[in-house]
Amino acid sequence: MMNTVNISDLKLGVIAGGQLGKMLSLAAANWDIETYVLDTDKTCPAAKSCSCFIEGDYLSYDDVYRFGKQVDLLTFEIENVNIEALKQLQKEGLSIFPKPESLELIKDKGLQKLFYQENGQPTAAFQLYDSKAAILKAIQQKEILFPFVQKLRTGGYDGRGVAIIRSEDKLENLLDGPSLIETCVDIEKEIAVIVARNESGNVKCFPVVEMEFNASANLVEKLIFPASLSKSITDEAEEIATSIVDQLNFVGLLAVELFVDKSNRVWVNEVAPRPHNSGHHTIEGVITSQYEQLLRAILNFPLGSTAIKMPCVMINLLGEPGFHGKVKYEGLNETLAIEGVKVHLYGKKETRPFRKMGHVTILANSIEEASKKADLVKDRLKVKS
Ligand code: ADP
Q1: Residues 204, 195: contact at Cβ < 8 Å?
Q2: What is the CA radius of gyration of the chain?
Q3: Which residues lie with the beta carbon below 6 Å from any ligand 1 atom?
Q4: Mean of the pLDDT values across residues 186-213?
Q5: What are phi and psi of 311, to 5 degrees?
Q6: CB distance 122 to 265 below 8 Å
Q7: Atom of ligand 1 nearest to the CA of 151
Q8: Closest C-alpha residue for ligand 1 atom 9
Q9: How far apart are CA 330 and CA 382, in angstroms?
Q10: Which of the pair, 158 or 63, is modelled with greater confidence?
């Protein structure tokens, strides 16, 4: 349907203008698509790279509705969006991908887990609880055993909203609010498969990537691409991702986060219905970037090749601890002297400890070489104030 639209006249609405919105608008510009970005902050990363910035709150019904009325096709780069406005816009005929129904299910981790359970996806055993008090009661009644993981059903991101409670004396870390409690997986590796599905139902996975987390910030610190895992494990991860998008009848880009446990079993952790941090490396490391793939999926074009161009390591550029305020990048010159280094600065004006300020992808002939260079980049490039 969208293919009958003259692409040069197409106005693509992107809800939220963080780094993902910025990189999406840059990819859209390659096809001469105009991007309209809605964000509360007029200095957000995408404000300069989009065609038209609209100031507004993505949680406000009126702001989202009015924004939707100005565009031909709508997508989002965050989950925290006013769903009622999206549903009304869809009812009035606007193409919104991923569909508001998919977003509604995914943004509630409880509904997401029930979906995996109902569809036979391998996921850690869980129970849903309404409050901290209900969880404490279930612990008393030995319904919940240590260690366990608590996740707030909505509103969490980047590890906020997740508490790993190993023993009774750590109960002070319990969060309050409707939650899911799940068993701890004995994690060997955290991996991700980004998968695209277009309206015709064609599906394509990006090769499996490994994610290493920064323990103090609970943020992805490093991506290793491709993952060093056996083919049977990567095949299994891709099969899980493919079956999830089919079961959801999903259109767009879905980032599927999985665990490989110490017995080499693969578990689905959670999904995000948008471009993802675990796909940063696709800009330089894969024939088609996650952003181009998202555009192909939502415009119902053929999906692009996900063949690997070169092995790479991606590191997030986080605000250096101890520095707040107007951003300064230290060591850019020394970093750019290293061959194969691609620096992305998001353009956030203010730095804070562990804030995602940019990322660097290091391409090399082997993961070992890329990892060595990544260590050099980490030593040289610092975000300070
Ligand atoms: P977020 O939405 O904040 O990214 P996640 O569900 O990805 O939350 O959880 C954050 C991190 O917590 C994961 O990357 C993983 O390291 C750890 N974690 C989550 N679930 C489990 C689990 N069942 N067992 C062990 N560790 C877990």
Answers
A1: yes
A2: 21
A3: 124, 149, 151, 156-159, 161-162, 164, 182, 184-185, 187, 190, 213, 218, 257, 269-270
A4: 97
A5: -60, 150
A6: yes
A7: 6
A8: 159
A9: 5
A10: 63
